[in-house]
Amino acid sequence: LVTGMHPFLEISLPGRPHTPEDIEARPAAVKSAKGVTGLHEPVDKWTDLGIKPHWKVEIKRPWMMTAGPKVRDNLERDWTLSSADIPFVNRLFLDNDIGPHVTTEVEVLWAGGKAPDELLTDLPESHKGEESRREAADRIREAGGSGLYPVDLIATCHFEKVSRCEPFPTPFVLMSFDLETSIAEETILCAAAVIERGPDERTEHTFTGSEREIMAGLTALVREADPDIITGYNIDNFDLPRINTRMRDLTGSSDKAGAADAYGWGRVPLLDSEHKRLIPQRDGNRRTWRIHGRCVLDAWWQARMVLRPKRETLKFVCQLLWPDREDLQKMDVDASQMDREWAERPDVVLEYCLQDSLLPLEILSQIRAVHSKEALATVCGMPLDVAVAGTTSQWLDGLVIRLADRHNVAVPRTNRGGGRDQIAGGYVHEVEAGVHPWVAVLDFKSMYPSIMIANNICYTTRIDELARPDEIVEEGIHEAPDGARYLPATFRRGIVPRLLEDLMELRDRHKESLREAIENYDGINEIFHSRMQYAVKILMNSFYGVFASKFYRFTHPELGASITSWARSNIKTIIAQLEEEGHPVVYSDTDSVFVRAPVSEEISGKEPEQGEERGVWEEACETMVEFGEELAERYSKEGAELE
Q: Given this model, what pLDDT does residue 114 score?
C-alpha cells in the first residue's frame, strides 16, 4: 500500500499564449472547486500552440476525476487540460521513474504462511497468522487499504521510498486452468488447474460435482494459491466468459456473496465494497479480460503472435512445438461429443481436462512468453499488466510521458477519434518474373527509427508557422520530401529522437551481453539479454505505427507521412544509382533492396553437389558478398545505414 501520492492534472489558458487581465484570479478560483485539494505555482511548458504557464491541480481521489464532482469535466469548460487521462497507478511509475523491479523500505502490516521465513521470525505475533486477521484488517484500513487482501504479505510505504533496482527474473506464480462443458446445455461438467511456482514445482487440481461446487473450488484455489498470472488455452474467448455466464445464471444480479464465491478471482478482500474489482471483467470492446491485481496471459494468443500457426487448435500447436514428445500431446477425447464422453468415461475426460491445463504452461515456457512480457515492462518502465494487456501506445507512454515531464512538455490527452490516417507507405519495386541468381540483399538497419533520429522528427519539433511563429530558424531545418519541416536538434532536440537513440544504445548493450553469455554458456543471462534486446526492438519499431495513427497523444498527421516519404526517397535514390551503374535491381520492399551481383550468368545460383568442382562457385559467392558489402558501405549515410 503506497501512501503520500495525490492524483492530479494540469491546466493552462486556452489558445495561444496571452496574458488576460484576470490571470491571477482565474487560477485562484480553481482552489474552491469541489474535489480540488491543492493548486501549485505555474510552470512554463511547451505546447503545440507555444510555451504557456501550467498549473498543477491536485484532486482528493482518483475517481473524482470523472465521477462524483467530475473535476475534469468542470475544469475543461474554462481551461485546456493536460496530463489528465493517465491512470493513477501509472503515475507512481512515471513520477518515481521506476519499472516493475523496485526496492523499498516498508512497514509490514500482516504476513501469511507463505511469506519469507526471515520476516515471520522478526514479526510480532499480532502481525501474522490466522488469529490476527481482524486486527490486521484494521491496520490495513488505517494505512489506506480496504481489508485483508489474498496475498502472502501486506506492507505499506511512502511513495518517495519506492525506487528502481536492477532487473531480476521474478519468481511469478502461474495458474493454468481448463473447463470441459456440455454442448447440449452449455453447463460446466468439470474443471482442472495447475499451479506453477517455478518450472520444477507444480501442483495439479481437479474439480467435479455441481457447477457451484466446481466454480467455488476454482475460486478458492485462486485465492489460496494467489497466482500472479492466469493462463489457459483460448481462455479469453471461452473459459473466462463461460464462467462469467454461468455465475450470472446461477446467482443473479443481487447475490454478491454468491458471485464472489463463484468468481471472486480479483486480488482484493471479499467485501461488497470491492465487488466491481472482485469479479473479472472484459476489457471494453477488446477480447481481453481483466482480473484485478493479476495478469491474464492467454497461451493461444501468445502462440499465435510468436508461431503464426496455420491452425488454432491446441493439438496443432503442440504437434508444431513438440512433434516427437507424446507426453506433450493433446489426449484423444472427442470434444465435439463431450456429453457422451463425460457420461461414458468421466475419469478420462478429467485427465484430458488436466492435460489441457498443463500444456498452456509448457507453451508459455517454450516461447518464453513470461520472460518477454517482463522484459517489455522493464524497458518501458510500466507495470507488468501494461506489458501483458496494454496497447502499443500505452507501452510508449511509459517512455514518452516521463521524458516530456522532465523537459517541461505538456502532455496532451489521447485523441479519442481513433483510426489511422491514410498515408503513403513504403516503396515497392515491381519484380520481373523469373529466377534471378546471385542476388545481394541490402537491408536498412532500423530504417524508420534511424530516419526519425537523423531528421529530428517529433511532435515537439514539427514547424508550424501559424501556431508557433517564434520557432522559425534560418538554417539547419530538416525538410521532408513531402514538404513537412522539422527543427534542427541544435534548436530543440525532439523527445522521440532522444528516446530512440537511448533505445538503440540499450539494445546494442544487451546484444553484446547476449554474445558474452552465449560464449560463456550462461543460460540464465542468455535468456535475459535475448528477451531484453527483443523488447527494445519491439518498442523501437512501434514508434512509426503510433505516429501514423490519429489517436496517439504525441502525434500529428505530418509525422508518419514524413517518415515514409524520406524512406521512399532513400530507396528510390539508391535504385536509380544502381541501375545507372548497370546493376539490375530485382526487387525492393520498404527497407530492403535486392540487386544482381556482377557474376557471370553461366554460373548456376545453386551450390554444387558433393564431389563437383567448387572453385568457380566459391569465387562467384565471394564476389557477390564483396559486392554487397561495398554497396552497403557506399550508400550508408546518417539515417540510412545499410547492411
A: 85
How many whole angstroms separate alpha carbon 457 and alpha carbon 497? 7
Task: Compute φ and ψ for 462, nearest 5 degrees.
Answer: -65, 125
CA angle 339/342/346 to nearest 5° reads 175
Q: What is each CA distance from 504 to 531, 541, 637, 639, in whole angstroms? A: 15, 11, 17, 13
* Contact call for residues 480 and 566 (beta carbons, < 8 A): yes
Type of residue found at 350: L
What the block records as the C-alpha cell of 53 is 504557464
DSSP tag of 494: -
Who contacts 25 (Cβ-Cβ below 8 Å, separation ≥6)? none
Whole-Å CA distances, 101 to 171, 228, 383, 513, 623:
12, 15, 9, 20, 50
Name residue 181's amino acid. Answer: T
Cell numbers that stand for 83 in this block:
496530463
- Which ranges of 381-467 does DSSP label H, i.e. alpha helix? 384-389, 392-406, 447-454
pLDDT at 59: 94
Residue 124 is predicted with a pLDDT of 82
* Total residue count of the chain as it appears in this document: 643
**Ordered DSSP codes for 178-227:** EEEE-TTT--EEEEEEEEESSTT-EEEEEE-SSHHHHHHHHHHHHHHH--
Q: What is the residue-wise DSSP string for 311-323? A: S--HHHHHHHH-T
457 touches 543 (CB < 8 A) = no
The CA distance from 195 to 293, in Å, is 17
Provide the residue type at 57 as one letter: V
Give the contacts of 642 (CB within 8 A, at least 6 positions apart): 442, 443, 444, 445, 631, 632, 633, 635, 636
Distance CA 99, CA 29 (A): 37
- The residue ranges of the chain whose pLDDT is under 70 are 20-22, 130-131, 285-286, 416-426, 601-614, 639
Confidence (pLDDT) at 626: 92
**Rounded Cα distance, 18 and 188, in Å:** 65
C-beta of residue 277 within 8 angstroms of C-beta of residue 266 = yes
Q: State CA 305 to chain mean position distance.
A: 13
Q: Which residues contact 402 (CB under 8 A, 6 or more apart)?
A: 94, 97, 381
Q: What is the pLDDT of residue 555?
A: 87
Task: Estimate to the nearest angstrom the gap between the alpha carbon of 250 and the chain centroid.
Answer: 36
| Contact by Cβ (8 Å): 59, 35 | yes
Give the whole-angstrom CA distance, residue 467 versus residue 248. 54
- CA-wise closest residue to 552 among 365, 411, 408: 411
Q: In this predicted structure, what is the pLDDT of residue 93?
A: 95
Q: Are 500 and 493 in contact (CB under 8 A)?
A: no
What's the CA angle centered on 11, arms 7 and 14, to 5 degrees?
A: 155
Residue 466's alpha-carbon distances to 136, 258, 487, 492, in angstroms, are 61, 61, 15, 18
